[in-house]
Amino acid sequence: MSRKIKFILQTIWNDNRKLLVLSAVQLPLQVFLPWLQIFLTRTLVTGIERQDPLYRYAAEVGSIFLL
């Protein structure tokens, strides 16, 4: 089984390296996106309760999306 996986990864690496890298990055992103949505919602609700200014929300959300 490991020889098959090695062959598949080697073939993808030789044919299209960008596809392999994007596939490897996709899994951690799928794990962290739900956590990030919960964090953004919690931050927004907490800021509304504390009556923080609107530019602070824009800065937090913008910085997260720029990462």
Provide structural commentary.
The protein is mostly helical and 67 residues long. The protein has one domain (2-66). It contains 3 helices and no strands. The protein has helices spanning 2-15, 17-50, 54-66. 0% of the residues are buried. The model has no long low-confidence stretch (mean pLDDT 80).
Give the secondary structure arrangement, pairings included.
Layout: H1 2-15, H2 17-50, H3 54-66
Helix pairs in contact: 1-2
Strand content: under 5%
Note the gap between the termini. 37 Å
Which parts are unreliable, with pLDDT below 50 for 5 consecutive residues or more? none
Share of helix, binned: over 70%
- Briefly note the structural class of the backbone: mainly alpha
What spatial form do the alpha-carbon principal axes imply? elongated
Overall pLDDT level = 80
How big is the Rg?
19 Å
Index terms:
single chain, 67 residues, 3 helices, 0% strand
Write a brief structural summary.
By secondary structure, the chain is mostly helical.
